[in-house]
Specification:
alpha+beta, two-stranded antiparallel ribbon
């Protein structure tokens, strides 16, 4: 078992979750933004994660048996690919849902009928996403601490 590889995987997951939390914070901050530089209301953003695997056929090329082959090679400390396992941000994509129309004839961005286009951002959804990102970040931090403890214990055993 490669303890440092586990630490790299947890570290990459922590970076990805931090970015996810930043995107959620940007969504919350722009929930009432009716006019961006492009002239349209702000569009909600989503983070898309992808596995770091070295190539796109990671599971199929490791063995004919797919998951069991990956599990077996991990148990035998044989790297499946040249890249340490982990996660990265594949993309930050804009939500395609249409903006919400609210009647506010006194607003500077109101159309001829008095309607203003607001981003389709639900604060409850954003808070759930933020809680998920925070929880995943914390769990990966706990995994790093446990890995550090295992490395320290292994060093203590080697000294004795």
């Amino acid at each position: 078992m490669n303890l440092f590889g586990l630490m790299e995987a947890s570290g990459s997951a922590m970076q990805a979750e931090r970015m996810r939390a930043e995107v959620v914070a940007a969504n919350m901050a722009n929930a009432e933004t009716t006019h961006t530089a492009a002239g349209a209301p702000y569009q909600r953003q989503h983070v898309v994660f992808a596995a770091d695997s070295g190539d796109s056929n990671f599971l199929n090329e490791s063995s004919a048996s797919g998951f069991s082959g990956v599990l077996q090679s991990a148990a035998q400390s044989q790297p499946v690919s040249g890249v340490a396992p982990g996660v990265h941000i594949a993309a930050v994509v804009h939500d395609t849902s249409p903006p919400l129309s609210r009647y506010d004839p006194g607003h500077p961005d109101a159309d001829a009928n008095g309607y203003v286009q607001y981003p389709d951002i639900n604060p409850l959804t954003e808070m759930v996403d933020l809680m998920g990102a925070t929880r995943a970040y914390g769990l990966n931090g706990s995994a790093v601490q446990a890995e550090k403890g295992m490395i320290t214990a292994a060093l203590d055993i080697a000294k004795g």
